[in-house]
Amino acid sequence: MANFSTAVLVKAQARLINAFQEEELRFRNPAVHKLFLRNTTIMVPSYEELRTLEDRVVETNYFVRQTRALGSARSHNHTGAQGDSSTLTPTWTTYTDEYVSTLKEADDKLYTSGELQASKVNDVIANFAEGLETAASTFLFANRSGVNVSTAEGVFDATDDVFEITESTNGDRGVQITKSNLDINKYQGRRFTFVCDTIAFNKFEKQANQGTGNSENLSFQFSNVEFIHDPLLTAAAAGLTSAYANGFWVAVPEGSIAALPWIPIQNRQGINTKENMYGAIVNPIDSVQYAVHSYEERVDGTSLGGYTQDLKEETQISVDIAYATAPLSVATESSIMAYAFV
Is 80 a member of any domain? Predict the structure, then answer.
């Protein structure tokens, strides 16, 4: 119940410890969010130096490949085309979570003030883990490539932007076909992460364990591939026009996606004013620095689990994240390639 009201010392009470209370506090590991965070250094100078304010635009430049057919003869008066470049502008979104405390909230509680604060911080950590995982998964799904040039052992559905593999004939070779499809799309000599819905993840995990001691050895196709289970993709895939229900996954070449976390400079420096505190904490789940802002007010704290002559502290934890994919000159093309069994 609110304000830790069940922990008020009006009767003999004990506390649940260890795993017996951990089930209520569980949250999903933000594996997709952390996949983006593997690559945060994508520009020079650093975006943290350039983005001095929340609404300051940061523009990055990159070279654009000039594709030409080869000529067939030498000439004394040959003429060439100039090179070109383009820009990528990361878009940051602010994510926040808040909690309130009072000076006297622990006076009649089973828990100490430190334990109450730790509980609130743990809630924030869990809320960010699940909230940012949803944001990362949504970004990954929305930015799948609208271009796939391969026609081998599958068909690209340009409506859903998904390369479809017939499961009845090639269901045990989905990983192999995906890797050759990526090769045809010029993603070569790379490691890949396959972010899978629950159906595809289960199938691939089973196939990956069909080793030499089994009647059918399927392990040959699983080198240089990492698998991440993203349950959110199950509903996302089912919501497409083709309503994929046999297994859906996206393949991400190593280093082709990034997450750029940022907090204001006042929080990085740790500044206290007469009424406000600006600080930072490192989230132990994703190792990212988050901004902390708090302020105090005189209040009647009885409605918050405190007392009449009390002090209220409002605390907000926040971080700005820009999820990004490596830029490509074709507007609908992305390095995030989607696949499904049909």
Answer: no
Angle at 188 between CA 322 and CA 59, to 5 degrees: 25
Q: What is residue 169's predicted lDDT score, i.e. its pLDDT?
A: 96
Q: Is the dihedral of CA 182, 183, 184, 187 positive or negative?
A: positive
Residue 196 burial class via C-beta count within 10 angstroms: exposed 0-12, middle 13-18, buried 19 and up: buried
Q: Say which residue the tokens 């009072």 belong to.
A: 102
Phi, psi of 341 (to 5 degrees): -85, 140
Helix axis angle, 174-184 to 198-208, nearest 10°: 100
Report whether pLDDT(179) > 60: yes
Report yes or no: 194 and 176 within 8 Å, Cβ to Cβ. Answer: no
Domain count for the chain: 1
For residues 225 and 253, the answer to whether their CB atoms sit within 8 Å is: no
Say if CB 323 and CB 336 are below 8 A apart.
no
What pTM value is reported for the model?
0.90
Q: How far apart are CA 257 and CA 249, in angstroms?
A: 16
Whether the bond into 264 is cis, omega within 30 of 0: no
**Number of Cβ within a 10 Å radius of residue 185:** 19
The tokens describing 40, both together, are 């945060």
The answer as to whether 220 is a domain residue is: yes
Tokens of 303: 């409605």
Provide the mean pLDDT of the chain.
92
| CA separation for the pair 68, 55 (Å, rounded) | 40
90 lies in some domain: no
Name residue 192's amino acid. F
Domain that holds residue 46: 29-50+113-262+322-342
Using DSSP, state whether 209 is helix, strand or coil: coil
What is the residue whose two structure tokens read 């006042």? Answer: 266
Q: Are 326 and 336 in contact (CB under 8 A)?
A: no
- Count of C-beta atoms within a 10 Å radius of residue 121: 16
Q: Does residue 228 lie in a domain region?
A: yes
306: exposed, middle or buried (Cβ count in 10 Å: 0-12, 13-18, 19+): buried
User: Is residue 128 pLDDT above 60, yes or no?
Assistant: yes
